[in-house]
């Protein structure tokens, strides 16, 4: 018996699941996680908050996650300088679930979503999973968004949802505010459609957040996560900021009590320690920049990075280089972009191990 013998939906036949390898190797720099464990005082605070939540686990959690959304709105206001209120914020189990709720609300059968690839593979997978048609738009050679081609694609396809990933995974490329505005205008003229700006990595960027653009643009949504900058990938907490009407709209599809009381308590504890966690972000940015310089110093091509990861290449046999680095105990990511690999910035020691592995793995000049 295999999947094809089951009466699954036709559009899922032949598809592959999301599958970053989870291998047991000493240095894991393949899934853009934060290498720093949560600091002990925060671990203690989580235990305290979760204990308090446990006393009420006989009851369903706050379905509207009011206190948490308040905390997330404060965080956004403080870090972007743009005032955001709780009514503009919605949270779910990872930004993947936020994206899924948005696709369930604004996509679906008979509708299409457009993204500019290479980009985060889950945008296409979540679209397909929600019955939304997926259309792959182009990028320039340097992986920036090809604005003319993008605007033309929007006019032609008239998608219901447009994905803009900034900084973009797996390339690290940030998108300028002007570009997002032009895409938004094109998307409104064509339909109007929902424009999702995925800012999972924005805390690592040289550029300011695009969040202020939501003002006066009810069809623009910014998604965020605590998986990267907050170093809490295991928590599963993502969120969005948008017009309050968007928050009202996703209520139509969210499962009741989707965000457990334990999750809400843990995320609130993390928010209390924002400053410490953002201190690690500064260290990671410096390490990212060091890796960029070192890889360029080795004669490799490196895409400018605004994220906590770096795309480097170009390799004639990408898989062979990936394997050679792995054989030296360092796991990086082959995202299927021909000629390129991606490495996540780790601790200084992990990054040194990675650079040593790369030096030993480069094909010798012919
Ligand atoms: N968006 C982007 C661009 C990502 O790279 C990721 C995680 N790799 C996510 C969203 C989802 O993150 P999470 O569900 O952990 O919030």
Can you put this structure into words, describing what you see?
- Residues 27-357 form the Aminotransferase class I/classII large domain.
- Homodimer.
- It catalyses: L-histidinol phosphate + 2-oxoglutarate = 3-(imidazol-4-yl)-2-oxopropyl phosphate + L-glutamate.
- Pfam families: Aminotran_1_2.
- GO terms for molecular function: histidinol-phosphate transaminase activity.
- With 366 residues, the chain is of the alpha/beta class.
- The chain has two domains: 17-39 and 275-361, Alpha-Beta Complex (Aspartate Aminotransferase, domain 1); 40-272, Aspartate Aminotransferase, domain 2 (3-Layer(aba) Sandwich).
- Helix content is 39%, strand content 14%.
- The chain has eleven helices and twelve strands.
- It has helices at 40-54, 66-80, 94-106, 121-129, 147-157, 177-190, 244-250, 261-272, 274-297, 318-327, 348-361; strands at 27-28, 89-92, 112-116, 133-137, 161-165, 194-198, 220-225, 238-241, 301-302, 309-313, 330-331, 340-344.
- The strands form three sheets. The protein has a seven-stranded mixed β-sheet with strand order 2-8-7-6-5-3-4, with helices on both faces. It has a three-stranded antiparallel β-sheet with strand order 9-10-12, covered by helices on one side. It has a two-stranded parallel sheet with strand order 1-11.
- Helix 1 packs antiparallel against helix 8 (261-272), helix 5 packs parallel to helix 6 (177-190) and helix 10 (318-327) packs across helix 11.
- The longest helix is centred in the C-terminal third of the chain and has 24 residues, at 274-297.
- The radius of gyration is 21 Å and the shape is globular.
- The protein starts with 26 loop residues before the first strand and ends in a 5-residue tail after the last helix.
- The mean pLDDT is 96.
- Bound molecules: 4'-deoxy-4'-aminopyridoxal-5'-phosphate.
- 4'-deoxy-4'-aminopyridoxal-5'-phosphate binds at residues 32, 94-96, 120, 165, 169, 198, 200, 225, 227, 233, 238.
